[in-house]
Every structure is written in structure tokens, then in C-alpha cells.
């Protein structure tokens, strides 16, 4: 953690704090990833897209590995995806019905998952 996180790019508040990978402003509730905003010079809300979080609140990014936290039924398969299944190399997408992760799962192939059923590995 940094001793002095950067001021809020939205309201210039100096009382920001770090929470996991994000920096949070207590005055306007703006959240951003400091590395992204310093590289591009643009706040993530305008240049980076929406923030996708897993079931426990960790921020997910393309290429992360995740673990499925609950058993999932799969149409056309006698057995579903078991809790604890590791998924490598996810890709964040704007999917249908809240399915915001595109991935390949061994034994099942390509599919989309909701971020609420995975945890960052």
C-alpha cells in the first residue's frame, strides 16, 4: 500500500484510501485503479470500462485465473462444473444476462460465466 494514495480524479479529494487493487474516494464514492489512470492520463470510468468484481469483491482483469465457488449445471452435460474448478485465462466481455466472463473450461469447452460464481485465484 502507498502511504499517500493519489487524489480523486473526479472531485480532487485528498482523503482517498486503497481497498485491494482500487483507490476509493470517501466523498464522491469514485473507485479507480491507480495504475490504469496514471498510464493513460484518463480516469478508468472514461477510458477503461466498467469494473468487474468476483464473488468476494476482488477486481477481475483479462487473463486472470479464477476458481468456481459453487457447482454449476450445464445444459447437455450429465455432470456440471464442480465447485473448485480452476479456470485460466479469462476474458471480460459484455455478455447476455450478466454473463461477463468468457473462458474455456477443460472437459466443457468455451462458455460464459457470471462473475458472481467465481473467485480470483
From TrEMBL:
Gene3D superfamilies for this protein: 2.20.25.10, SH3 Domains
Family annotation (Pfam families): YjdM, Zn_Ribbon_YjdM
Every Protein YjdM N-terminal domain range: 6-32
Protein YjdM C-terminal domain sequence ranges: 52-121
UniProt cross-references to InterPro entries, sorted A to Z: YjdM, YjdM_C, YjdM_N
Top-rank taxon, per record: Bacteria
Family: Belongs to the YjdM family.
NCBIfam families noted in UniProt: phnA
Protein name in the entry: Phosphonoacetate hydrolase
Amino acid at each position: 500500500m502507498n502511504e499517500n494514495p493519489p487524489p480523486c480524479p473526479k472531485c480532487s479529494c485528498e482523503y482517498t484510501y486503497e481497498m485491494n487493487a482500487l483507490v476509493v474516494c470517501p466523498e464522491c464514492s469514485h473507485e479507480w485503479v491507480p495504475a490504469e489512470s496514471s498510464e493513460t492520463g484518463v480516469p478508468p470510468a472514461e477510458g477503461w470500462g466498467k469494473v468487474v468484481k468476483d464473488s468476494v469483491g476482488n477486481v477481475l482483469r483479462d487473463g486472470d485465473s479464477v476458481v468456481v465457488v459453487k457447482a454449476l449445471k450445464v445444459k447437455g452435460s450429465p455432470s456440471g462444473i464442480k465447485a473448485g474448478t480452476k479456470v485460466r485465462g479469462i476474458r471480460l466481455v459484455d455478455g447476455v444476462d450478466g454473463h461477463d466472463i468468457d473462458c474455456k473450461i477443460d472437459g466443457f469447452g468455451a462458455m460464459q460465466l457470471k462473475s458472481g460464481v467465481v473467485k480470483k485465484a
